[in-house]
Design a protein that fits this description.
The chain is mainly alpha-helical and about 55 residues long. The chain contains one helix and no strands. About 0% of the residues are buried.
Length: about 55
């Protein structure tokens, strides 16, 4: 296995790559959460018995 010395350029490139992956993962996670919340908000409310709730009692 070749030995790669960790120069400042390599360290900077590695740090940038890790940050890119971290930020991309965060954006994907937040987008999925927002999509799920929007989908849940559009869905009609259900009562605990599983039947659709009319909102009247």
């Amino acid at each position: 296995m070749p030995d790669f010395p960790l120069s400042s350029t390599n360290a900077l490139a590695l740090t940038a790559s890790v940050l890119l992956v971290f930020v991309t993962g965060g954006v994907i996670y937040l987008s999925a959460v927002e999509w799920r919340d929007r989908r849940r908000a559009r869905r009609p409310a259900r009562s605990p018995s599983g039947r659709l709730s009319s909102g009247r009692r």
